[in-house]
Amino acid sequence: MRDVLLTTIRGLGFGSVYAMLAVSFVIIYKSSKVISFAQPALMLAGAVLVSYLAGPVGFYLAVPLAALGIAALGLGLERTTIRPMIGRPVFVVAIITLGLDIAIRVVVNVFIGTDVRNVGDPWGLDTVSVAGLPIQERYIAMVVVLVVVVGALFAFFRYSRYGLAMRAASLDQETALVQGVSVGAMTALSWAMAGGLAAVAGAFVGAGGGVDQSTWVIALKALPAIIIGGLDSIEGAVVGGLLVGVVESFFATYQGEYLPWLGQNFSLVSPYVLLLVVLLVKPYGLFGTREVERV
Amino acid sequence: MLAVSNLEVVYDDVVLVLRGVSLEVPEGQVVGLLGANGAGKTTLLRALSGLLDIHHGSVTRGQVTLDGERIDHLDPQQVVARGVSQVLEGRRVFGEFSVEENLRVGAHTKPKDRAANLERVYTLFPRLLERRTQAAGYLSGGEQQMLAMGRALMSNPRYLLLDEPSLGLAPQLVANIRDLITTINEQGTTVLLVEQNASMALSISEHGYVLENGRVVMDKPAAELLDDDDIKEFYLGLGAEGAERSFRDVKHYRRRKRWLS
To answer: How far is B228 from chain A (nearest CA, A)?
Structure first.
């Protein structure tokens, strides 16, 4: 029982990070109808920025600063490389984001060097005892940050003028335009928000273990998360992210014992197995909008 | 005054849709714009509200002015901010949004006046108040048209451009919409009413324009247009004697249009 609980909590912790990344994918998808493969690089850039800023200003200030910095980077990327591609096939835009990802990572890698960089988080691998369970503080922090971020996003999209305008623009661009909504500005805003989110996620990916040149791979786990949740649903991205985290965590703990014939480190591919299963049962994801094609 | 002079619009650099259209919408009036499918009505509205860009259209000659200032090269949001608001053809409400959220999007450019405008819209359209928390996609066609008009009013426009508000509505609802347009006009909003339903449009307009093949072929006070034999025949579906014609006669047209187009 104790093991099950600890495994679940670890899963929810990492799942929170995946969920934040997944939400960043979804925000861009909703505004531009494209999956931005630049998110892993933005996450890495965010983590590295935090690792540099944490020394002088402390971790708690470094995270929001890095989020702002990467948001500005996202804004710049949208303006320079995505905006000119409006009206082109989304496939082309997706390939551009792939190129951006590689380019940004090359630059960021220079700042990482060959060692693991510590992001300067205050938790490390410390644990706190809750009801007799030694729970790692960083997992608690990850879950708390996810709750705060997602809560803020929901309030933003539901109640604020710009949130509403962003949703309107993603539903029907022409109608949004005649209401006086600048659709271009809304797309730019979505890239900035996605960049900021990726940076925050990056800071927590690095918490406890630091970042190195291969950390970006973690962001790819957001892909099964968004496809499980449905590409255009923020709720779905959160649920998908948490689900991926928990499944991965359970495989890491129990697969060696119960399914030894799957070999070692099967937990690394478990998100993709989960993805396969969900797609077979619910092709549009758990929360996705069904696409009805009429001929 | 909203004025269009010698406007020429080309889509994709090849398709000439408007061939020198001139039109005036004086403040305080209702102006009707009639025309069959493909005459260029919607294109003209796009030129007024800055939507040509996203349809790959461009103004190649002439201009659109609002109180003397050129507005044909402005972005849609700048046009809305100057007080010209369009209701697109086919209502186009945000189906997933609640009625009130739709109205809030309409208030995007005027967040400060939102409460006052919301009250005005709910007074004009009490049905929307009843349904304010419902998803707009579940409203009936007439209610959706009211919502689309209410949403456009949320930006507090001086000029309201309506693109076929009677489209797909039952005659009773068309009459409702007509009365509402009159009320909106009496409250001080100038209306440019683009319609295929000529009798409805001319019954509330002061002035009417007839657009055919991208040209204005007739331009008269609405009362005179209602009396015009050609308009009666080709736009109101009435015979020369004023009675509704039987479709049995349709094959045997004797009258021809007397204008060039």
So the answer is: 35
In the stretch 129-168 of chain A, residues with CB closer than 8 A to chain B read: 161, 164-165, 167-168
Task: List, as ranges, residues 102-121 from B with C-beta within 8 Å of A.
Answer: 104-109, 111
Do the interacting molecules here have an ipTM over 0.85?
A: yes
Residue A280 DSSP SS3: helix
The whole-angstrom separation of Cα A233 and Cα B68 is 47
Whether residue A292 is contained in a domain is answered as: no
Q: Cα separation of B49 and B224, whole Å?
A: 29
Domain-located, residue A22: yes
For the stretch B106-154, pLDDT in tens is 999 999 999 999 999 999 999 999 999 999 999 999 999 999 999 999 9
Total structural domains within chain A: 1
Question: What's the residue count for chain A?
Answer: 295
A173–chain B Cβ distance below 8 A for any pair: yes
Q: In what order do the strands lie in the sheet with B207-212?
A: B84-87, B159-163, B190-195, B30-35, B207-212, B215-221
Residues 6+ apart with CB under 8 A from A169: A31, A176, A181, A183, A186, A187
Which domains, and CATH codes, for chain B? 2-83+158-252 (3.40.50.300), 91-156 (no CATH)
pTM of the model: 0.87
